[in-house]
Amino acid sequence: MAQRLALGQLRVQKVRHGDGRCSYTIFDSASSLHSGADWYLSKYAGTGSDRTYAYLLIDHLRWLEPEGLTPETVTFRSLKRYMGAVGAKISMPYGAPWRVGKQPYQNAALRGAAACLKGFYRC
């Protein structure tokens, strides 16, 4: 049984397992797993970090589309631009504002996002 938590093309879902455990993962619009995200998040299943990392990762994955990027085409420069778009102080232009109407990430969230992306891309 899965509970839908976010709307849009990509969404975070809470998954209840047969043994009572819960974990979080990312699904695409066709209700199929986002394989890269699921692989990464499965390492954190049941730790409490999977939910946090799922929401940090989905924000990044949603940012990729308007930038014309995919997880396979992301560069270190792209990651720096993304971090600037969510609130990090960077010395380069980062493009269009991201998360319009929301506050920039504070230091703790920026550290979490950087750790999540580092693990996801295995930098």
Automatic annotation (TrEMBL):
This is Integrase.
